[in-house]
Design goal:
Layout (H helix, E strand, L loop, with lengths): L1 E7 L2 E10 L3 H9 L4 H4 L3 E9 L3 E10 L2 E12 L4 E8 L4 E14 L2 E12 L4 H28 L2 H5 E10 L3 H9 L4 H4 L3 E10 L2 E9 L5 E11 L3 E6 L6 E13 L2 E12 L4 H5 L5 H34 L1
Antiparallel strand pairs: 1-2, 2-8, 3-4, 4-5, 5-6, 6-7, 7-8, 9-15, 10-11, 11-12, 12-13, 13-14, 14-15
Helix pairs in contact: 1-3, 5-8
Length: about 325
């Protein structure tokens, strides 16, 4: 993997490239489908489409930038024939004043593709410290994203076989706002949920939460996770584990809140990607990917159902108090 930076007055241009053992069409499809980015690209937390067609799309994206979570709106022009994708940030976040670029996929040999990932950007007021921060973030994230792209592309269809999405739903006879508050107020979980030993939560931007949580497993051991959560008031809370458990290469999820005739239905949905190299280490020699998926599903559903049932009691008590 290589990277380079060229200064053109206040405008900076960078290029990072990598050669991947997969066809150009396969690589293109992974980059074109931003809905898969949270499980392919480490920095991407969540993507929400605003407009979408075969050749043009607008979306809002949340991603990590060093120790911060940034969000912006991007426009992309897709050319599946030339296998290029041009992008520009329609709404950027400080210290970025302008950001755009292009993905380019080139077949270099049978089953091998050269990927060139270019950026063009400026800092607000052309501030040198801000520009240095952007340089570092673009370089770090580009390298991580290209490595993630390589891993996903070289697994090919196995990526789908390694992935699993599942959910649990509980209906609650009470207000949707109370259910949403129970999940949003994660700082209260250590006293509300028996499997949460410690939780540290920060919310520097309204609705963007970073939390570190110690979870007690059935055997008494403690597992620490660090996640980013994006809150959409009373509608949903989406999240991504920044460092997934040893068995997984990715774990994302969401909490959904849907009003019903007599209350609210709350759903906990998970998407996991098993790390096949970790399966024998975590589960023992001879363990299969299917067994790893079942193990992850059982563990995550157990904690989700505990949370959902405690939320149900909270919501229905709130309804009784209001009545």
């Amino acid at each position: 993997m290589t990277g380079s930076v060229v200064a053109d007055g206040p405008l900076h241009r960078t290029e990072h490239e990598i050669t991947i053992a997969a066809s150009a069409s396969e690589v293109y499809q992974l980059i074109a489908d931003v809905t898969r980015w949270p499980v392919v690209f480490g920095p991407t937390v969540h993507v929400e489409h605003l407009e979408r067609s075969a050749t043009r799309e607008r979306f809002r994206i949340w991603a990590t930038a060093k120790d911060e979570v940034k969000t912006w709106t991007s426009v992309r022009e897709l050319d599946p024939v030339a296998r290029t994708i041009a992008f520009r940030q329609e709404v950027s976040q400080p210290p970025v004043a302008r950001m755009g670029g292009r993905w380019r996929m080139e077949a270099v040999a049978a089953g091998r593709t050269r990927v060139v990932f270019g950026h063009t950007y400026r800092a607000i007021d052309d501030d040198p410290d801000s520009l240095a921060w952007i340089d570092e973030v673009v370089d770090r994230n580009s390298r991580v994203e290209l490595a993630g792209l390589q891993s996903a592309a070289e697994r090919g269809r196995a990526l789908d076989e390694l992935s699993l999405t599942f959910e649990d739903t509980v209906r609650m006879a009470g207000p949707r706002a109370a259910a949403y508050d129970f999940v949003r107020e994660a700082a209260e979980w250590p006293r509300r949920l028996p499997h949460v030993a410690r939780l540290a939560l920060t919310e520097d931007e309204p609705g963007v939460q970073v939390m570190e949580m110690d979870t007690i497993r059935p055997d008494g051991t403690v597992h620490t996770t660090r996640s980013v959560r994006i809150c959409f008031p009373q509608e949903k809370i989406v999240y991504k584990q920044l460092v997934p458990p040893a068995l997984l290469s990715a774990h994302t999820g969401c909490w959904l809140f849907e009003e019903t005739g007599d209350g609210v239905a709350v759903t906990s949905r998970h998407t996991v990607v098993v790390d096949p190299e970790a399966v024998p280490t975590v589960l023992g020699p001879g363990a299969t990917v299917a067994e790893a998926q079942e193990f992850a599903r059982n563990a995550l559903s157990r904690d989700s159902m505990t949370t959902l049932l405690r939320a149900k009691s909270f919501v229905e008590r709130a309804r009784g108090a209001a009545g």
